[in-house]
Amino acid sequence: IHTSTSLQKFGKWEKKNRIVYPPQLPGEPRRPAEIYHCRREIKYSKDKMWYLAKLIKGMSIDQALAQLEFNDKKGAKVIKEVLLEAQEMAVRNHNVEFKSNLHIAESVTGRGRYVKRIRYHGKGMFGIMKIVRCHYFVKLVEGPPPPPEPPRTGFDQAKEYVQQLRSRTLVNTL
Amino acid sequence: LPVRTKKRFSVPEWARELTPEQKEKRLKSLGTIFPEEHVERNFYLACTADIMDPYVPPEGDARLSSLSKDGLKQKMEKLRQTATSQLALRKVKDHVPDFSTKTFPEKAQEIFIEAHNSLANFNKQKLHSLVTERCYPEMVRGNRYKTIRWSFVESLEPPRVVHVRCDSVVNRGNLYGQVTVRMHTRQTLAIYDRFGRLMYGGEQVPKDVLEYVVFERYLVNPYGTWRMHGKIVPEWAPPKDPVIKTVMIPGPTLDPSQEYEEMK
């Protein structure tokens, strides 16, 4: 007799936490742990949330938490809770040794379910307003954050141009 | 005081409050009502909830070498220790005529090895048939996203039946038999986490293990089988190896005015 049902429908991001890799041989380099976490249907705009997600993207988790704590936006509080939850999950369930040894590899926002409502104006006019919700996805990877890419200088561009010129070949000839 | 006004409305005949006798008469005339009997979900107890009268292993078991007199005495201890064990053994033999304390330990060891192999392969159906429902969650808790590699190297001493108990649960004739087998074996265990990193133990590191494993069988059921029920861990057992990673234990919560060194 079926007495209980599942609580929520699992999306693709939640299922990414379930893959199991085969055991590593002793000679291989240690595989860094990856933890996926998300929060669905946050009452905030996805475009406004994107700014915060882009802010956090390459940082270590301590730096990200510090930046979000002193940010004035509404989404900052939500993202901070999500990061703390993910850190807790990592240490408890996914065998991560040091909780500050994590960095944020991907942080992405997505559109949630929109609901349309009537917004009443004067003189009997109305507009249709959308109640906007978003999802927020985070992927934490064990290890120090990767060094930022050096910006492209004029010298790099010149080198690439010369390389392009050198790699030209003659076409349709002997 | 009721207000004397013109009677605007009147309560109809059928809505008026009846006296208790009139009510009873009315109920009887309608006919007797039988309360609806809910068909309850019945359950079947296939195993007991705990080890009855757990065996207390003697101190320093398997520490003394077999060349000294004490060691030999320990080895030659037979099952004729307690009267309750003998009684229980007789009851078990009533229901299961094939049972014998000399052949059972081998079968028990086979069941033990099979159960651990199916745990390593995550073969749930086989594990359920080899291990009771009480022992299954203990074995399987927390293993879902991990790989376990277990292998049995050899048995250092032949296994021995050490303790027999027979008891009934809920009703009087509902007999379950529990037999404790003492096993001294060499095993290797390695647990890898979700990403394939070693969490505990080593593949090539054999460890000597002295265990008291309890097997249980539902005696009244003619098709019952002996299944692993649990293990008895004595108090003097050596502590297990620590896990490979470092774990943080949170300290006491401090006020902003206090220092940790002062608290200590």
UniProtKB/TrEMBL annotation, chain A:
Gene3D superfamilies: Ribosomal protein L22/L17. InterPro entries: Ribosomal_uL22 (IPR001063), Ribosomal_uL22_bac/org-type (IPR047867), Ribosomal_uL22_sf (IPR036394). Keywords: Mitochondrion, Ribonucleoprotein, Ribosomal protein, Transit peptide. GO terms for biological process: translation. It is found in: Mitochondrion. Pfam families: Ribosomal_L22. GO terms for molecular function: structural constituent of ribosome. It comes from the Eukaryota. One of its GO terms (cellular component) is mitochondrial large ribosomal subunit. Its main location: mitochondrion. Belongs to the universal ribosomal protein uL22 family. PANTHER family: CHLOROPLAST 50S RIBOSOMAL PROTEIN L22-RELATED (PTHR13501), LARGE RIBOSOMAL SUBUNIT PROTEIN UL22M (PTHR13501:SF8). This is Large ribosomal subunit protein uL22m. It comes from Bubo bubo.
TrEMBL record, chain B:
Its main location: mitochondrion. It is found in: Mitochondrion. The keyword Mitochondrion applies. It holds the Pfam family Tim44. Keywords: Mitochondrion, Ribonucleoprotein, Ribosomal protein, Transit peptide. One of its GO terms (cellular component) is ribonucleoprotein complex. Gene3D superfamilies: 3.10.450.240. Residues 85-233 form the Tim44-like domain. InterPro entries: mtLSU_mL45, NTF2-like_dom_sf, Tim44-like_dom. PANTHER family: 39S RIBOSOMAL PROTEIN L45, MITOCHONDRIAL, LARGE RIBOSOMAL SUBUNIT PROTEIN ML45. Component of the mitochondrial large ribosomal subunit (mt-LSU). Within the mitochondrial ribosomes, required to direct the nascent polypeptide toward the tunnel exit and position the exit at a distance from the membrane surface. Belongs to the mitochondrion-specific ribosomal protein mL45 family. This is Large ribosomal subunit protein mL45. It comes from Bubo bubo.
